[in-house]
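Service request form, structural biology core

Requester: graduate student, group of Dr. S.
Request type: structure prediction, single chain
Budget code: on file
Notes: please return the result as structure tokens.

Sequence provided:
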Amino acid sequence: MKSIIIGLGLAGLAVWLGNRAAGGIKNELGMGQDSSNNRGGAHTPDGRDASLSYGAGIADENTIPNAVPSI
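Core staff response, request fulfilled:
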């Protein structure tokens, strides 16, 4: 029983550390919570700027991101 609890604790620690490391990478790419809502720009098919709605997360199906960062 003690080994199960230790194993679950170590698994939880591994998940927590992995999320912390991934959060640092996301922040460097401008995708994390500390990026001040900087998700990049976007436009519509007719060329109008849609960066504000895209940055707010309310973009519709006609919104095209200017560049999608790869992870």
